Amino acid sequence: MAGVKSDGSDSGLVLLDVFGSPFAQRVSIALAEKGLAYERAEQDLTAKSDLLRRSNPVHGKVPVLLHDGRPVCESLAILQYLDEAFPGTPPLLPPVSDPYARAGARFWGEYADRLHFCGKRLWLSAPGGDGGEAEPGARAEMATVLRALEAELGEGDFFGGAAFGYVDVAAAPFAAWFLTYERHGGPSVAEECPALAAWAARCSRRESVAANVYPPEKVHELVQEYRRWMLGRK
Question: What is the pLDDT of residues 30-56, one digit of tens each?
């Protein structure tokens, strides 16, 4: 995982994040794509800091991007903010001259969140993470989400076509979770959505993603640890 990014400039950016958060990873990927320097301030969500509470008083969660001390909350809002606040950097969203494409990118970026929420239902409910039965309907819902994303991807290398952009940044952290979803009763992406699996492989080879997202086996290990912790609390 990346710690502090630096391109030799002073961007006034501090990222409040937490170990392994795919939502925070979105922001780290975006910052890397834009070549923006930032400081990373990892948070403890079991004992939230005053800084986090002040920066995100509504939800008290990460990621939060501080720009010259001013907080921007929620990962997708941060991605859009970076495009607007740093117009001289490579854009994530389609050009302002194409509002239809920009609206579509925002829609699919938000839709990618379903991978996380449906996936969480799978890995919290399937016994032991050994392919057992998951929560009824979770597998079917995950299959629907994956097929919808594959249809939107089409024949392009990335969701924006040839260019890695907003939707790719939003969805790439969850591609590392495909193995975990499958091992907890979800569909096999490689078998059922081969184009999406190929996209995930392309993303994993991209420097911004490889430096900021754990490989699939590591994600699975972390999920198993979290499951044991959750079960131990009951």
Answer: 999 999 999 999 998 889 999 999 999
Do 173 and 112 lie in one domain? The reply is yes
Residue range of the domain that includes 78: 13-85
Identify whether residues 77 and 117 lie together within a single domain.
no
Residue at 8 is within a domain: no
- The C-alpha atoms of residue 126 and residue 165 are separated, in whole angstroms, by 33
Confidence of residue 8 (pLDDT cuts 50, 70, 90): very low
- List residues bridging with 40 in a β-sheet: 15
If asked whether residues 55 and 152 sit together in one domain, one would say no
The number of CA neighbours under 13 Å toward the Cβ of 120 is 8
21 and 60 share one domain: yes
Question: Are 160 and 212 in the same domain?
Answer: yes
Domain boundary pick from 58, 85, 112? 85
For 154, counting Cβ atoms within 10 Å of its Cβ (0-12 exposed, 13-18 middle, 19+ buried), the class is exposed
DSSP state of 71: E
C-alpha–C-alpha distance, residues 110 and 75, integer Å = 10
State the burial class of residue 177 (Cβ atoms within 10 Å of its Cβ: 0-12, 13-18, 19+): buried
| CA separation for the pair 154, 168 (Å, rounded) | 13
Q: What is the CA radius of gyration of the chain?
A: 18
Angle at the Cα of 53 from the Cα atoms of 47 and 59, rounded to 5 degrees:
95
pTM reported for the whole predicted model: 0.91
Q: How many domains does the chain have?
A: 2
